[in-house]
Amino acid sequence: MLPESIKRILAMEPTGQAVQTGGWVRTFRSRRFIHLNDGSCLSGLQVVVDFEHMDEALLDRITTGASIKVKGTLVASSGKGQQSEILADEIEVLGDAQADIDHPDFYPLQPKAHSLEFLREKAHLRFRTQTFGAIFRMRHAMAFAMHQFFHERGFYWLHTPILTASDAEGAGEMFRVTTLDMANTPKHSDGSPDFSQDFFGKAAHLTVSGQLEAELGALGLGKVYTFGPTFRAENSNTTRHLAEFWMIEPEVAFADLNDNMDLAEANLKYLVRYALDHCAEDLDFLDQRFAKEEAGKKQEDRSKYGLIERLKLVAEQPFERMTYTRAIDLLEQSKPNKKGKFTYPIKGWGTDLQSEHERFLVEKEVGRPVILTDYPKEIKAFYMRLGEDNKTVRAMDILFPGIGEMVGGSQREERLEVLKSRMKDFHIPEEEMWWYLDTRKFGSVPHSGYGLGFERFLLFVTGMTNIRDVIPFPRYPKHIEF
Ligand code: 4AD
Ligand code: MG
């Protein structure tokens, strides 16, 4: 039988009932009080040991990090900080953890604060820490809320492929998938690899987005969304990029850009609300952690708000909606631009926005999330709907304080001829995209969608600053050990 989780035990009325549980020892004080945690929630359970009647050798093995099984009775606690505790009748040590600091296998997680960098190297142990416990419980809650949000609105979860032959974003940052012998690749006469002899009979990659396939789904099912891993081989060693990240991509038939913005804003607010309503214990912990981190920063770099405060603001205030053209005006006139403080100066209309610009807009200019729309067609993807002005596309990016781009989306070009001419501009061969173009041939409708970067969003709700700390096994340049 499975032992009761500590989360469930803590929710019980303590009446002296028999309970059985298991977990990892956080601390063992005075050979009497074990602080036990099993990952089910942030709090641990106090186990009281009747040390006079227990085997000395057994007590010696109850060390930080050891796993134990406990049988005992649940009683009201007289100590402060907890409502109930277990009076142990029987303790079994299942797995020891070396407590001798001079031993090569010394348990590395001691009851003190460890740096996030240190923990990133301790792949499995970081799940045992309070910080990562809180983060990954929240990650689960947010994934659950995401599905609930779309399910409540009549969307169907569409499982788009991970292996693909198309480059949806046209960004050329794809990981190749092949079964060809690297040492002996079949080649064309010009020396280029002959992928017709590869597994799929053509070049294949890991997907950078499920959007194009989601569009096919939406143009039959109406409202769909994808939620899965996405891969980008961009060599950006930043705190906001991963080589493998999770993306949520809703796609809605008959929806225009305004509908798309409304949906995305409702989506983000729903998740934040859900976190505030259902993750109180973990969020309180992360809020305190955030406050400590902020206190260590220079005054001018400090966040104006606490973590929970910031979440409440986002859940309550409407996002600011602004065109790219207006944003460029603001940025051109801005102090950092005039004083040459931007690494990439604003060179008039058409300049692609960098994250320094995005953050200036949200953090300094507006002070809350901003939805930027109608970007120059040259700096956005081929599938975005061309505006009446022939210069802009009906794109939208949602920018968040502290993070920059959280969401990227658009209304799609539903007119076959316009789409074809846009593909020509981007040198995308029609033959390879016949299956996509078909959707515009038979019963095409206006439709829209967006991509929400799950880890970027988790940075925002957990108050963490490095994207590597909100995914269980981060993948980034030169890191794929575990
Ligand atoms: O703006 P992006 O590239 O948009 C698309 O892929 C569209 N196909 C989405 C759509 O319209 N269906 O990516 C969407 C979001 C970004 O806003 C960002 O939050 C996240 O995905 N993202 C990354 N997150 C982590 N690491 C990376 N390397 C990321 N690249 C994009
Ligand atoms: Mg984008």
Task: Write a brief structural summary.
By secondary structure, this protein is of the alpha+beta class.
Give a structural overview.
- By secondary structure, the chain is an alpha+beta fold.
- It has two domains: 107 residues, Beta Barrel (OB fold (Dihydrolipoamide Acetyltransferase, E2P)), CATH 2.40.50.140; 306 residues, 2-Layer Sandwich (BirA Bifunctional Protein, domain 2), CATH 3.30.930.
- The protein is built from 14 helices and 16 strands.
- The strands form three sheets. Strands 6-10-11-16-15-14-13-12 form an eight-stranded mixed beta sheet, with helices on both faces. The chain has a five-stranded mixed beta barrel with strand order 1-2-3-5-4. A three-stranded antiparallel beta sheet has the order 7-9-8, with no helix packed on it.
- Strand 2 and strand 3 form a beta hairpin.
- Helix 4 packs across helix 6, helix 4 crosses helix 7 and helix 6 packs antiparallel against helix 8.
- The site of 4-amino-1,4-dioxobutan-2-aminium adenosine-5'-monophosphate (4AD) has 23 residues, from strand 11, strand 15, strand 16 and helix 14.
- Magnesium ion (MG) binds next to strand 15.
